[in-house]
TrEMBL record:
GO BP terms, alphabetized: methylation
Gene Ontology molecular function, alphabetical: S-adenosylmethionine-dependent methyltransferase activity
Keyword Chloroplast in annotation: no
Natural source organism: Zarconia navalis LEGE 11467
One Pfam family matching this protein: Methyltransf_11
Protein name: Class I SAM-dependent methyltransferase
Keyword Transcription appears in the UniProt entry: no
Domain of life: Bacteria
Length: 265
């Protein structure tokens, strides 16, 4: 299963199987605009724009926004949300790790939990540095998985490991923990500012979370054969009944939206 097909497959599921909401996105946008001291002319780029969750509030507020994604299906979801696409939004179906722009094109580049997906993160950071205007901002952000959901996923991966070890296969790119953005950008004379843009509570029933896995809404689900995946899911459902008592049990915990803001010294 290629990256392209994986993202195309989950596009229709993406928004409802994650924990970012439109309300949260609006609050995060308020924080972003404050961080970058935005003016009406501030321009934004998001490589790996996905279904547009992070940039739609910017678009609706009139800012110039460009989004790139390797998945045409993801971009189509943005088009369905806006329909028609406003003049201040440009969408490109391209490899987000190769930025097809001239030097000093954008005031702000935003990436949200995507830098670990590129083939060479150092080259990617060089590209971000190249397309940023002088005194521009690179915002490297991520949604922190709510602990209850992370624990739930961990139980499923533990069951999968009994059948196969798909998660130990050689990765195509670095993992999130292996990427030291701050050290690399400090060598380029960038200074960093860390902040939590938003904290909020996420609640799902066990049944809902189980359904997300059945739909293969997450990347690791596509690195497993259908036979093994089905067997593991059957065992996992029994485990959930035993562990949580009922599929209607609600799991709640806090999520965070973290931002590392980098600016040239």
């Amino acid at each position: 299963m290629s990256k392209l097909n994986y993202y195309d497959k989950i596009a229709i599921l993406y928004d409802r199987t994650r924990w970012m909401t439109e309300t949260v996105a609006e609050d995060v946008t308020d924080r972003i605009l404050s961080l970058v001291e935005a003016t009406p002319k501030t321009s934004f780029l998001e490589p790996g724009v996905g279904t547009g969750l992070n940039i739609l509030p910017l678009v609706k507020r009139g800012y110039s926004v460009t989004g790139i994604d390797i998945s045409q299906e993801m971009l189509d979801r943005i088009r369905q949300k806006l329909n028609p696409i406003p003049d201040n939004l440009t969408l490109l179906n391209a490899d987000a790790s190769k930025l097809p722009f001239v030097d000093e094109s954008f005031d702000v580049v935003l990436t949200v939990h995507m830098i670990h997906t590129v083939s060479n993160w150092r080259t990617f950071l060089d590209e971000i540095d190249r397309v940023l205007k002088p005194q521009g901002f690179y915002l490297n952000a991520q949604w922190i998985t709510p602990p209850a959901r992370a624990e739930f996923e961990g139980y499923f991966k533990s069951i999968l490991s009994k059948y196969q070890k798909p998660l130990q296969a050689k990765p195509m790119s670095a993992t999130f923990k292996e990427i030291d953005v701050e050290t690399y950008l400090k060598k380029k004379k960038y200074r960093a500012n860390y902040s939590i843009a938003k904290e909020w509570t996420v609640s799902n029933t066990v049944e809902e979370l189980l359904e997300f896995f059945k739909l293969r809404a997450y990347g690791f689900c596509w690195r497993i054969s259908d036979e093994i995946f089905d067997r593991a899911l059957e065992e996992f459902e029994d485990f959930c009944l035993d562990r949580y008592g009922s599929l209607k049990t609600e799991l709640s915990s806090d999520a965070k939206f973290e931002i590392w803001a980098y600016t040239a010294s």
